Every structure is written in structure tokens, then in C-alpha cells.
């Protein structure tokens, strides 16, 4: 199952050249860019780990691409996304976010049904990956 999140979720994975162009677009708009990673890709898990500090005054996307290469080398079995944050007054929120790296095998999610008071049915999505402890969720995870 291919996990989709973010701006380009309906497209195939972007190449490094396409990622570079999107990051440069964000920088040209004055947005700070950063990398985040996780091994728990649940759609409600919005707080991913931050890779280094956000790049606020970086004029060239190549610096982020180099950071992305380092993150891929260190966490080959994690999800890595790029976030472009707009700190303009009145906005102060991410403008762009997309997955730039994913593990080779994505186990997907299972739907769990729970019965509540008055026979109400509640459903929740549980990633198969989160059944294992952090750091051991994918094959050969570091």
C-alpha cells in the first residue's frame, strides 16, 4: 500500500530534480524549508521528527537536497517529507508539504472496529508498522 500525504499525493514520487524545483519555488517565495522523518506514518501523526534545523535564509535548494541525501542514508526505511513554512504575518503555517522518501516496503493500515455505548460503532486506522517499537518497524531499520 502506497501511503499518500501532502501536496503531490496524487502524483508518482518526485525525482530529485523535481524535488529541487519545488524546494527552489518555496525558497523563492520566502518560505523556510525543512525535513521531517517518521516510522509511524499514521495520517493523524502530524508531529514528525525534525531533521536538523529549518532553513530560513537559505537562497539555494541544493543545501536541502544534500540534507535529504543524508537523511535518506541515515533512515532508509523511514518516511521523509519536505515542509515549506510561510512565516508571513497572518499566515504562519506550512504552505507546502510532500513525501520525498518512503521505505521500500509499506505495510499499510488495518481498520479496527470498536463497539461503544449504545451499540455505537467506532472505527480507527492502525498502521501495521506501529505494532513494533519505534526503530524496529521496518526491515533493517536503523
Automatic annotation (TrEMBL):
Belongs to the RuBisCO small chain family. Residues 4-103 form the Ribulose bisphosphate carboxylase small subunit domain. The gene is cbbS. The basic functional RuBisCO is composed of a large chain homodimer in a 'head-to-tail' conformation. In form I RuBisCO this homodimer is arranged in a barrel-like tetramer with the small subunits forming a tetrameric 'cap' on each end of the 'barrel'. Pfam families: RuBisCO_small (PF00101). Heterohexadecamer of 8 large and 8 small subunits. Residues 107-142 are annotated as: Disordered. InterPro entries: RuBisCO_ssu, RuBisCO_ssu_dom, RuBisCO_ssu_sf. The keyword Glycoprotein does not apply. Keywords: Calvin cycle, Carbon dioxide fixation. One of its GO terms (molecular function) is ribulose-bisphosphate carboxylase activity. RuBisCO catalyzes two reactions: the carboxylation of D-ribulose 1,5-bisphosphate, the primary event in carbon dioxide fixation, as well as the oxidative fragmentation of the pentose substrate. Both reactions occur simultaneously and in competition at the same active site. Although the small subunit is not catalytic it is essential for maximal activity. Residues 107-118 have a biased composition (Basic and acidic residues). This is Ribulose bisphosphate carboxylase small subunit. GO terms for biological process: reductive pentose-phosphate cycle.
Amino acid at each position: 500500500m502506497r501511503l499518500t500525504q501532502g501536496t503531490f499525493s496524487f502524483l508518482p514520487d518526485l525525482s530529485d530534480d523535481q524535488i529541487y524545483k519545488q524546494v527552489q519555488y518555496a525558497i523563492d517565495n520566502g518560505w523556510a524549508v525543512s525535513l521531517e522523518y517518521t516510522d509511524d506514518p499514521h495520517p493523524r501523526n502530524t508531529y514528525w521528527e525534525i531533521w536538523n534545523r529549518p532553513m530560513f535564509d537559505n537562497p539555494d535548494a541544493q543545501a536541502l537536497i544534500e540534507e535529504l541525501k543524508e537523511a535518506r542514508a541515515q533512515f532508509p526505511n523511514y518516511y521523509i517529507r519536505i515542509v515549506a513554512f510561510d512565516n508571513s504575518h497572518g499566515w504562519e503555517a506550512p504552505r507546502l508539504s510532500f513525501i520525498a522518501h518512503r521505505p521500500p516496503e509499506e505495510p499499510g493500515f488495518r481498520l479496527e472496529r470498536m463497539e461503544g455505548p449504545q451499540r455505537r460503532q467506532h472505527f480507527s486506522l492502525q498502521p501495521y508498522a506501529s505494532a513494533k517499537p519505534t526503530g524496529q518497524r521496518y526491515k533493517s531499520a536503523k
